[in-house]
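Good morning,

Attaching, inline, the backbone tokens for the sequence recovery test we're adding to the shared suite. The designed sequence is right after.
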């Protein structure tokens, strides 16, 4: 499945680029993600999704496959396996940037495959809705991280938590379902 997103950050492209390729800095902004190790462009970590009473924890790696600094493009490969052996995920993530009037636009194309419990979310456009919601949370965290004033002691600002909270599947699903229902009624009112 392929999903495309685009978002804007009110900051110079050089600053956004430096932040986006700093995996250790941005990983906590992705809900459910936690880095457990890594070096030289290969990172290990976990991704946690809470589905009702059960929690799925995927262990995997992220590899910076291609980093084109002059072109402001990066390609990453991600893969993970459910720790209980009940599914897997693989993704190729390509990001590129452009800048106009001090605002950086980031375009992200994700081509991924899911198996197991999470694959059920692929029905009826649910994956797209979930990914839109997660991207919104990621971008809000990224903005806070980049635009927060530096503390008085001179150390860098770091407003995101050291580890992200797990994705709560049921509350996310209900929130998305409610948004879809409201959309149906809005279309009827027109």
């Amino acid at each position: 499945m392929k999903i495309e997103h685009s978002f804007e950050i009110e900051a110079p492209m050089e600053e956004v680029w430096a932040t986006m390729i700093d995996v250790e800095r941005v990983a906590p902004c992705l809900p459910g993600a936690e880095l457990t190790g890594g070096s030289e462009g290969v990172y290990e970590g976990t991704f946690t999704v809470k589905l009702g009473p059960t929690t799925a924890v995927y262990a995997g790696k992220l590899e910076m496959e291609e980093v084109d600094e002059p072109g402001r493009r990066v390609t990453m490969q991600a893969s993970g396996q459910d720790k209980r052996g009940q599914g897997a995920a693989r993704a190729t993530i390509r990001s590129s940037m452009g800048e106009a009037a001090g605002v950086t636009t980031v375009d992200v194309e994700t081509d991924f495959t899911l198996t197991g419990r999470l694959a059920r979310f692929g029905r009826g456009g649910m994956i797209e809705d979930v990914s839109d919601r997660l991207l919104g949370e990621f971008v809000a965290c990224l903005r806070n991280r980049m635009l927060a004033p530096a503390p008085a002691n001179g150390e860098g600002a770091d407003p995101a938590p050291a580890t992200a909270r797990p994705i709560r599947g049921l509350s996310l699903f209900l929130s998305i379902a409610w948004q879809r229902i409201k959309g149906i009624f809005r279309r009827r009112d027109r």
